Amino acid sequence: MVKTLDAISHRRSMGVILKAPDVPEIGEAIARLRDAGIPVVTLVTDIPLSRRIAYVGMDNRAAGATAAYLIDQWLGGGAGAVLLALSRSAFRGEEEREIGFRSALRQFAPGRELVEATDTDGIDAAVRDKTVHILQDRPDVSAVYSIGGGNKAILEAFEYVGRTCQVFVAHDLDRDNLELIRDRKITAVLHHDLRQDMRRACQAIMQAGGGIDGRIETNPSQINVVTPYNIPNQHIF
């Protein structure tokens, strides 16, 4: 990724819209782009200490807290641990969702345990294998908050061990999640309007280049709770 960003800085661009881990190497590459006069907007997951001009996406801590609220309400006072599935801990957006979720769940249900599955990169085979191992070791896991994707693989793991997931909250209305929520295999999807986000990202780049007036701002996207009964007509793939 660093090589790609450096290549862009050499061949020129009006701007870069970037989803990347919050690691020093990426921050340094963003700085080199800015030194070359190329504005960078971070999308979905932020790199706040970098020289990006804006972040476009949801408030990830609020999203995590929303997931905790939904899972607590649906599980009620029943027993059961929650599987917290991430793709890669270096993504700040995922980290902030996790922080928001843990903080809110401690408030709502301080006795409920969290079991973490991470560093799978959202790859189905890795997600499935890790989830099977966790479910075999933890028969008390009854709910899932999937931050990092691979949701079909998570459900396949539950099927493999012969158990049902009582509550499953996921992110983004992609093809897999659209199918899963229509089939009621997941309970809810936390979704934001990616088309609107892309418009805002392009607007920030145009503002940075003087193409349109106005101050460049970072405002969180609206968090929408999608159920089988309110699937948007314009879903995003």
Short description:
With 237 residues, this protein is α/β, with parallel strands linked by helices. 43% of the residues lie in helices and 16% in strands.
Descriptive report:
The chain has 237 residues and is of the alpha/beta class. The chain has 2 domains: 86 residues, Rossmann fold (3-Layer(aba) Sandwich), CATH 3.40.50.2300; 132 residues, Rossmann fold (3-Layer(aba) Sandwich). The chain contains 8 helices and 9 strands. The strands form 2 sheets. Strands 5-4-6-7-8-9 form a 6-stranded mixed beta sheet, sandwiched between helices. Strands 1-2-3 form a 3-stranded parallel beta sheet. α6 links the parallel β6 and β7. The longest helix is centred in the middle third of the chain and has 17 residues. The radius of gyration is 19 Å and the shape is elongated. The two termini are 23 Å apart.
